[in-house]
Amino acid sequence: MEHTSSPIVTILTPAYNAERFICRCLDSLLAQTYSNLQIIVIDDCSTDTTHLLANDYAQRDSRIIVMQTERNSGASAARNTGLAAATGEYITEVDADDWLAPDAIEKAMAEAAENTETDFILYHTILVDEKTGTQSPYPIERTAKHVMTGAEACHLSIGWGIHGWGLCRAEIYRRFPCQTDAGLYGDENSTHLQLLHCREVRLSAGKHFYSVNDSSVTHVVNMRRFDILEGRMALRQQLIKLGAQHQTIIRQNKVRWTDFIGVCHLFWLHSSQFSSAERAQIWQRMEKAYSTFRFSELPWQTALKPRYTIMPTLTMFYRQVCLTFLLKKFFS
């Protein structure tokens, strides 16, 4: 189906050492029944054949632009590099290991065309286990509606009761580009803020396939895994500054607390893999994050949960949770 007079949709595809997946991704984008596309592949200084493969596609189809970052900077910085060249009225992100059903963008844009107040259209996301090939729908929170206000969608996106994959109106996306000071979680933070500032958010039937694989940067144990500490703090500050609803702030604090416990568990499991200097740096980051938690800003059931109770110092809290981790491991 031709859409030459329809709005341009820009697709941002950051790619780093994605030679295993990039062809599958680009094939799916070129197969879209909505053809008025600008596809921007941003190679984040890959050391494999990603750049060559992307260039080969660009030579075959003029809708594809291949860019390269000056240095390996992560997906958020790569997306922002691509954003500088984006001309679309709507912007969507499709990572190099993900792909779309042929009619995904057409279905999303149909929602936009019929509903002029809609600023963000979410795909119907399917989670794909790369090891087994198993596919399962993303578990949308039960309270999610087909049509939501931006405030409602932002609230549900905290903790990912709804996901953030879809088409965003370009002026909103540009207002809240990926945060490069929040490490691995800059793109997540920006999605929450984009949703917050939408008039309407709608769910669409267009399928987006999200690859779940152990090679993802969020599954590798290194210093960047602890970026979640600063990322969650930065989001809290932004939500407060931009006037998010009180219940959304409370929800984010609860998620942030759960994530902090997860960081403690990660450190407990893998601290021996880090140098003494790295362990000291991680502990310092954990202390800074821990100091921002307030008993009054958490549901009492969370703040007083047995074995995870807020304590006066991080050292006291960490000893408490380490004992819990040890007991769970012993009795599992």
What is the N-to-C succession of helices and strands? Answer: EHEHEHEEHEEEHEHHEHHHHH
Shape: globular
Q: Output mean pLDDT.
A: 94
How much helical structure, as a percent, in the residues? Answer: 40-55%
Name the structural class.
Answer: alpha/beta
Helical stretch count? 12
Contiguous runs where pLDDT drops below 50 for at least 5 residues: none
Major sheet summary line:
10 strands, mixed
- What gyration radius follows from the Cα positions, in whole Å? 21 Å
Binned strand content: 15-25%
CA-CA gap between termini: 55 Å
The number of strands is 10
Structure, briefly:
The chain has helices at 22-30, 50-60, 75-83, 104-114, 150-157, 170-175, 186-196, 227-241, 246-270, 276-290, 300-303, 314-331, and strands spanning 9-15, 37-43, 64-68, 90-93, 99-100, 118-129, 135-137, 147-149, 166-169, 200-212. With 332 residues, it is an alpha/beta fold.
